[in-house]
Structures are given as structure tokens and as C-alpha cells.
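Figure 6 in text form: structure in, sequence out.
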């Protein structure tokens, strides 16, 4: 078990470490890619857009035969308005630095004189600069503008081919950064989703890693509960083969897999059978542990039971539980010895719900009696005393014992099932075999609860007294000796 747990922890840590590295790598790659897209690619895109706009303006100026600076201004203003979402301003400057035409909200000089000269003298293809303005971040680019006005063409003097300089102006284009953001918006959304997914995976791995020890403890507890469940199942009677000649049906439903309800039924000879049902305070594993202690105590007491010391054995069991359990732990307990030869039932009820004894007189309705004789619950009061009870248990009579998980089961409105509904089922169906009668009571309980779950351990035990065998002459052999239970064998 320990080696399996260590192996599971090592495998888990390895998987978490690999997953964390992969998630971290994905996060770094996604962030680097986003920065590259938002920075380098966006600026490169805007630079290309500036060249495209400059080429479009050159083409339109030629197509529209722009002749003067006023017409050039009109062309720039028209184009800037058409592309107002992308273009912040346009400005055309002569070689000598004189401004020829402009459109939009043109700022003061953006570029240094040397930068402009580098473009004019072909040392640089263009000059690009990013600016922060009240209207947002803007990329400004300076490019050659080769269109010449008619007046400039007429004033141009012919020059020798060798050493001839190209005559062109400069155009300054200001572009909004959000224009590039629109172009890369799908890619940036995907990258943001990748970043969010990587962060989510890292946080999930951190959470899982921190919660793993608690998870392992929970798994170990589940294993212990499963083991406790198997032990409890082994302590409870399986097929009721030890019930002797009694006809028995039982139902046991622990609330948490293991429970504090305990029942047992076993014979000590051919005619005497113990019927036991206890309910340990609380639920789950602590109650199940006390239930195991109670099982051993009952079996030991049965060996020493002689019919006259029932109350003394109850005092000893009370002292045993009081000495070995906490002050808030106690057991409601009913245990009886059924003597089918004498048709008698001797019992002690230690604070348990009074079991029901159902008699069926010939030609009359079933009569129901409670069995309350006994004393306080076991394990709570160290000096408690107990009183024995006794009742006739004739052929066909029923003994119905149940835990408070049956009578206190509440539906969605808070109403409890109650003992009255059990008695109603017994009056209507007392003639059924115990197994069918048990199913009838449970069916009524399920219908009563509806969708509400059980809130406690549930145990139901139904015992029917056997029909005495007939003598060879046809008479029933039910006139056996009337001595106290256990006087012949020393046990019951």
C-alpha cells in the first residue's frame, strides 16, 4: 500500500512537472509572438501602407493632371478624408524643405533635417518614427514623392546626362496604429486566447499540485473506508442461516458506506436464538468502530447468558462501552433471546425505539405491543441498572425491530415517517412472510420520502415465530418444559 502510494506520487509529480514546463513554454512563445506581432509586424505593416498611400497619391496626381500646389492640397485633403480611419495627416515638402501641401492635423517638424537629407540622397529608402499623440499612437513615415507640378517641369533646365540629379519631393504620411491592429486583430485574438489558456493551465497545475496531498489522503481514507465496509459486512449476518427455526428478513443501509447501526441474529442451540439490534450515536467510521466493539461484546455475553443474568450482562456491557468510548458516544440497544420451545421472548431494551410485537388472535385484528422494558442507553451512565422484560412469542407472532433511521426519516417538508406508519403496514399485512412485509414497509418509506435522501443509518429486522411441529398423534408438541431459558444447557 505504501509503495503503491509512493509510486503514484512520483508519477503525479512527473506529469505535473512536464505539464508545467509545456504550459510555461507555450506561455513564453505566445507572449513573444504577440509582442512581435504588436511591435515589429505592425510597424512593418504600417510602413508598407505608407508606401502604398504615397504611390496611390503619385498615380492620382498624374491621372488628374495636378498643375498647382492648390490642386495638390485639394487632392491630399480629399484622400485623407477618404482614409480618415487610417491616415492622420499628409504633408508634401520640397527638396529645400519648403512645405508645398498638407492635409489633416499636421504636427510640427517630426524628422530631423539630416534624416530628410538621407532620403533625398538615397542613403535611406525611408524614415519611420512612432509618436504618442492625443489621438493615439501614430507611425510617421517620410518617402520620396516623384510627382512634379507643371510649373516645376517648365522651370527645369536640361542637364548633362552624367551627374544628373533626380528631382523629387518628400511626402510625410502619418498613420494610426489601430489601423495595423485591425489588420492583425484575428491573429492577436488567437494569441491572447493562447496566453489565457497557458495561464489557465499553469494555475490549474499549481492548484492540482497543492491539492494533491489532500487528494492522496482522501484516497487513502476511501481505501480505509472500503476496508471498514468489508469488515462490517463480515460482522453482519449474511444469509441469516444462524436464525435457527425463525423466519427472518432484514434490511441494513449505512448512511456513509459504513455505519453505526448493528444487528445480529444467531442460535445457541436448536430452540434458542438471540436477536440483537443496536444504534451507535453518530455516523461513519467512528460509529462503525464502536459497532465492531459491540459485536464482540454481544457474542461474548451470549456465551455467559443463563436466562437469569440478562440484567447483569447488560450492566457489564454498559461499563465496557463507558470505559472504552468517549463521553459523547453511546448505544441504544435491544437484545432478546427467543425460545421457540417455550414460545417465550426474554429481552432488555437499553434506550432503543421500542420494538413491536405483533400478535394475530384467531378471528381478530392484529394486536401490536411495544417492548420497552430495560434501562438507559449503553455507555453513557457508568452505574446504570437494567430490568429484564419477557413476553409470549407464540407461533405466527411477529417481532419488528428498527433503528431511528426508519422512524425519523424525513421528507422534503421535514415531516418524519414515524412509528404510526409502520404499525399501519403491520395491521394491514401482518399475514405476509417477513421478506414481503419488509418490502411493503420500505416501499411505503420510499413513497413517503419522495426525492428526499436518507439522513441516517437504516436497519429493519422482522422475525416470525415458527409453527411448532406436530406430534405423531397429530397434536402440536408445544407443551415443552416451562423451566427458565438456559437451565438445561447453561446458555441461551
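Output sequence:
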Amino acid at each position: 500500500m505504501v509503495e503503491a502510494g509512493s509510486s503514484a506520487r512520483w508519477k503525479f509529480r512527473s506529469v505535473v512537472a512536464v505539464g508545467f514546463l509545456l504550459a510555461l513554454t507555450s506561455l513564453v512563445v505566445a507572449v513573444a509572438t504577440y509582442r512581435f506581432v504588436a511591435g515589429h509586424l505592425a510597424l512593418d505593416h504600417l510602413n508598407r501602407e505608407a508606401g502604398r498611400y504615397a504611390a496611390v497619391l503619385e498615380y492620382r496626381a498624374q491621372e488628374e493632371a495636378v498643375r498647382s500646389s492648390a490642386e495638390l492640397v485639394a487632392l491630399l485633403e480629399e484622400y485623407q478624408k477618404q482614409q480618415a480611419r487610417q491616415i492622420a495627416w499628409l504633408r508634401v515638402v520640397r527638396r529645400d524643405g519648403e512645405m508645398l501641401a498638407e492635409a489633416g492635423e499636421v504636427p510640427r517638424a517630426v524628422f530631423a533635417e539630416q534624416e530628410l537629407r538621407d532620403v533625398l540622397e538615397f542613403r535611406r529608402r525611408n524614415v519611420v518614427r512612432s509618436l504618442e499623440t492625443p489621438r493615439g499612437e501614430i507611425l510617421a513615415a517620410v518617402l520620396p514623392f516623384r510627382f512634379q507640378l507643371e510649373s516645376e517641369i517648365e522651370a527645369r533646365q536640361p542637364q548633362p546626362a552624367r551627374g544628373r540629379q533626380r528631382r523629387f519631393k518628400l511626402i510625410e504620411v502619418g498613420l494610426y496604429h489601430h489601423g495595423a491592429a485591425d489588420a492583425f486583430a484575428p491573429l492577436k485574438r488567437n494569441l491572447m486566447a493562447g496566453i489565457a489558456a497557458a495561464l489557465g493551465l499553469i494555475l490549474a497545475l499549481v492548484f492540482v499540485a497543492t491539492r494533491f496531498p489532500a487528494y492522496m489522503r482522501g484516497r487513502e481514507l476511501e481505501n480505509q473506508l472500503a476496508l471498514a465496509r468489508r469488515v462490517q459486512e463480515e460482522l453482519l449476518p449474511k444469509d441469516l442461516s444462524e436464525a435457527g427455526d425463525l423466519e427472518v428478513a432484514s434490511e441494513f443501509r449505512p448512511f456513509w458506506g459504513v455505519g453505526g447501526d448493528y444487528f445480529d441474529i444467531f442460535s445457541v442451540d436448536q430452540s434458542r436464538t438471540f436477536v440483537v439490534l443496536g444504534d451507535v450515536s453518530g455516523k461513519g467510521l467512528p460509529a462503525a468502530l464502536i459497532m465492531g466493539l459491540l459485536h464482540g461484546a454481544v457474542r461474548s455475553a451470549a456465551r455467559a447468558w443463563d436466562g437469569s443474568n440478562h440484567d447483569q450482562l447488560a450492566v457489564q456491557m454498559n461499563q465496557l462501552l463507558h470505559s472504552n468510548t468517549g463521553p459523547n458516544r453511546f448505544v441504544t440497544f435491544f437484545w432478546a433471546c427467543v425460545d421457540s420451545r417455550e414460545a417465550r421472548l426474554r429481552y432488555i431494551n437499553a434506550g432503543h425505539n421500542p420494538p413491536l410485537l405483533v400478535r394475530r388472535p384467531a378471528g381478530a385484528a392484529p394486536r401490536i405491543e411495544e417492548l420497552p422494558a430495560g434501562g438507559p442507553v449503553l455507555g453513557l451512565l457508568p452505574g446504570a441498572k437494567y430490568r429484564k422484560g419477557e413476553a409470549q412469542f407464540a407461533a405466527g407472532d411477529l417481532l419488528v425491530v428498527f433503528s431511528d433511521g426508519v422512524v425519523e426519516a424525513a421528507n422534503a417538508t421535514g415531516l418524519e415517517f414515524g412509528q404510526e406508519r409502520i404499525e399501519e403496514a403491520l395491521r394491514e399485512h401482518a399475514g405476509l412472510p417477513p421478506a414481503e412485509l419488509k418490502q411493503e414497509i420500505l416501499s411505503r418509506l420510499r413513497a413517503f420520502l419522495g426525492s428526499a435522501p436518507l439522513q441516517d443509518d437504516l436497519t429493519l429486522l422482522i422475525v416470525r415465530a415458527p409453527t411448532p411441529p406436530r406430534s405423531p398423534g397429530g397434536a402440536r408438541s408445544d407443551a415443552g418444559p416451562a423451566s427458565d431459558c438456559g437451565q438445561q444447557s447453561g446458555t441461551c
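Caption detail: DSSP finds eleven helices and 16 strands in the chain.
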